[in-house]
Amino acid sequence: MNLNRKKLYLASVSLLLGGFSSLQCGAQDLLTVLHQAQKHDSQWAATVHGYHANRELVTKSSAGIKPTLSLNAQVSQETYESATDTYESNNYESTRYGASLVQPLIRMEQWYDYKKGKALNRQIKADFKFSRQDFYMRVLTIYLDVLRTEENLRFRLAEKSAIKHQLDQTELRFKANLISNTDVQEAKAAFDISSVQYIIAQQDLDVALEVLNTLTGSNSTTVTPLEVEIPIEPPSPKNLKTWRELALNNNPQLRAARHGQEVAQKEYQAKLSAHLPTLDLVGSYQDSDRYVQTSEGELTSSSIAIKLEVPLYNGGSIGASRRNAKQLFKKAEDEFIFKQREILQDTNNLYRVVNTDVARVMAQKQSAHSVEAALNATQAGYKAGTRTIVDVLTAQQALFGVKRDYANARFDYIFDLLQLKQIAGILSEKDFVEVNGWLAKGE
After folding, report:
1. Residue span of the structural domain in which 262 resides
2. Is position 310 within any domain?
């Protein structure tokens, strides 16, 4: 290997395996990004507030079986006038105040509303767990997008540098009358194209960083890259049946659909009970004072009663509500079955995708070695006059393309592995801690 080729090789290796040390200065790792997003992401904040708001629906659902207590007061000025002289006209003031208490004894519709609230509470919790896991994957996606664009920028710079070096060598050989001007023009065209691709790569990185900073409320210019070597292993546990069982038992969307089915069932039972008699315990107390010009009177009364009410007809709304609730219950059953099949299908697919990713990473790594050897052979053939400059440029582009594909394969492996854990319902912040351990350690 001559001196120029050695310099080019060392420069490329430095860039491809984590150069740009200036970019890594002050880089944020995955856990830092996650914690910043938890504090500053408005979308996540809205999800949390929505969760707490929905929890209050559970409290409302139990109100129908609890007692109601009310106070009342009234002050009035009353006038009585007689049309004849038989009764004397009179003016007086009266005050009245009291309290009433109603304790439901038998209200089957409200009782099923209360049971519906219990199921709704479980559904709300399952939905929130899914929202949290979805938030985790959104953070991971944005972080990996920045890594992808940074890697692409590194490759474009290395490619541009390699083609520039090739252009310089071609111009020297042309001046020495060893090659024709056609080779120089081919090299110039390749360099111009690589320059444009580098500008596009820089723009893509700027866009990815803008999305990241919107998520975290920071002003990051880079993130911590992956180590050169990370554990690329098949998913554990290593059999599909276990992953399917995990998904059926833990997937939050499936659990939410199951609880949604229970909510619809209790709603249907409540509407079935709407025509049943209700029985309440009713207590009241009243104190009235009457002030007349010539006298003053006070009257107090209290009562306790059992109130029975039998609904007979309400314009057909009870029957319509019952039929509506029945269809919604059947709809919830169908949605649960559909979601179950969808979850199992996604589990099957993601399990296979992760295993394919493992093989793909290994194959891309080996392919990079093979393409690099082919580039060296092509460069040697060009110097010997058996290969053209186009062959060399094509081989260089193939090498950088393969290395870029290798980097993307590693990112895809991480994303698909965590997505598999998400579909199984076991994704947590611990997985982010593990992936964070795969990032390059600062000096």
Report:
1. 3-67+108-274+316-436
2. no
How many whole angstroms separate alpha carbon 73 and alpha carbon 100? 12
Residue type, 336: F
**Banded model confidence at residue 89, pLDDT cuts 50, 70, 90:** low
* CA distance to 126, 209, 399, per residue, from 162 (Å): 53, 27, 11
What gap in Å lies between CA 108 and CA 277, rounded to an integer? Answer: 9
Confirm whether 359 is domain-assigned: yes
Report the alpha-carbon angle 359-361-367, nearest 5: 100
For residue 77, the surrounding DSSP H or E stretch is: strand 68-80
Which pTM does this prediction carry? 0.83
Task: Give the CATH number, domain containing residue 322.
Answer: 1.20.1600.10
pLDDT digits (tens, 9 = 90+) for 290-321: 665 555 567 888 889 999 999 888 888 888 99
Tokens at residue 288, please? 């009235």
Q: What pLDDT, in 10s, does the model give residues 315-374?
A: 888 889 999 999 999 999 999 999 999 999 999 999 999 999 999 999 998 998 998 899
Instruction: Establish if 152 belongs to a structural domain.
Output: yes
Burial 228-260 (b: 16+ CB within 10 A, else e): eeeebeebeeeeeeebbebbbebbbbbbbbbbb
Per the domain annotation, does 97 fall within a domain? Answer: no
Q: Report how many domains make up the chain.
A: 1
**CB contact set of 26 (below 8 Å; sequence gap of 6+):** 221, 222
Query: How many other C-beta atoms are found inside a 10 Å radius of the C-beta of residue 373?
Result: 11
Closest by CA position to 15, among listed 143, 146, 160 = 160
Instruction: Give the confidence band of 11 by pLDDT, cuts at 50, 70, 90.
Output: very low
- Per the prediction, the chain carries an average pLDDT of 87
**Pair 44, 38: CB distance under 8 Å:** yes
292 by DSSP, 3-state: which? strand
- Which two three-digit tokens encode residue 240? 């599909």
Listed residue (15, 133, 116) closest to 59, CA to CA: 116
* Model pLDDT, residue 292: 55
- Joined tokens for residue 149: 């664009």
